[in-house]
């Protein structure tokens, strides 16, 4: 079968490898679609700093059950399924509290929990082996275009759920960056919160999509953005800001518009920073709750799938054949993907 391998520092290759056999408790999935994420670009850009090589990339995968290993119950050949992003232990204190994206056994203080396609073989291949407990049934959802729900919808869902108390009716939420995660985060906010939604992006096509996806206002993210959002909130600021870019320019917008006792969620890994002081005023108003994000919990994922089945959240996908992976990577880097790139074996 074909598999997109991280063959060396900053280098991928489409390789021909044996079809893997599922072991006890495992399932072989025939991949329908595999999402391409900015995190995959970060892996390539990390070069020699990335610690492991030789695995299949792709941490957003969906498809059909192809073969069952020994001792697997609850699945049958042909079932449409989606692969969970985070492979947690299920037994540690964090997992038992439902915080499986902070698993203390497969992850640590310095490392995210095990994630397929970022260590174990992932989904950019004809087939993938997955422990059965990390599969969710897709129900009526499409096994090709649903793959991005695994990360591009899960991760915003978690960030939004963690800021839920800031999103009551009458509040204002700002969504920065309407790419793969942002266009789904906006839909989740529209479907599950009472907040007025202001979307920011530098791309007019993405701003148009934002209007379709529930933004009350879609604004160009430029030097005037902070002033306009403060004007729209009578100078008070936004109750919640979701930054799906995380570059210095967007971090500056987020910290510049957040209201007192508001929330900022940095979801994009753009490397921006801000200084924080143990002071009453500045650089942030008092009481602001700031979090960065890694994935989401199983409970968040169950919610994502329910919203998708109800037709309230849908992925804008751009399909590429699996052997066009480098074209998809170039398009993503250049900002040419409207929604999420999905590789189809
Ligand atoms: Zn990702
Ligand atoms: Zn655990």
Provide structural commentary.
- With 345 residues, the protein is an alpha/beta fold.
- The protein folds into 2 domains: 2-151 and 315-344, Medium-chain alcohol dehydrogenases, catalytic domain (Quinone Oxidoreductase, Chain A, domain 1, Alpha-Beta Complex), CATH 3.90.180.10; 155-292, 3-Layer(aba) Sandwich (Rossmann fold).
- It is 24% helix and 25% strand.
- It has helices spanning 38-46, 93-96, 154-161, 180-192, 204-212, 225-232, 248-257, 298-309, 325-333; strands spanning 2-8, 11-16, 26-35, 61-68, 80-83, 127-131, 135-137, 172-176, 196-201, 217-220, 238-243, 258-266, 289-292, 317-321, 340-344.
- Helix 3 (154-161) crosses helix 4, helix 3 packs across helix 8 (298-309) and helix 6 (225-232) runs parallel beside helix 7.
- The chain is globular and about 60 Å long.
- The model has no long low-confidence stretch (mean pLDDT 96).
- The structure holds zinc ion (2 copies).
- One zinc ion binds next to helix 2.
- Residues 88-89, 92, 94-95, 103-105 line the site of one zinc ion (ZN).
